[in-house]
Amino acid sequence: MRIKSMKQYSHPCDFPFWIQRNLHDVRDMPDIHIHEFVELIYVAEGRGTHLFQDIYYEIRAGDIFIINPGERHGYALKEDQYIGIVNCLFEPDFIPHSLLSDLRINDALDFFYVQPFLNGHSRFHHKLNLRGEAADKTRGILEELHQEMDRRQPGYQTMIQLRMTELFILLSRYYKDRKNKTDSRSPQELLIRRICGYVERHYNQKITLSDLSALFHIGIRQLNRLFNQYTGSSVIEYVHRIRMEKAKRLLTDTDEKVNVVAEMVGYGDPAFFNKLFVREAGCPPGKYREENR
Question: pTM of the full predicted structure?
Answer without folding.
Answer: 0.84
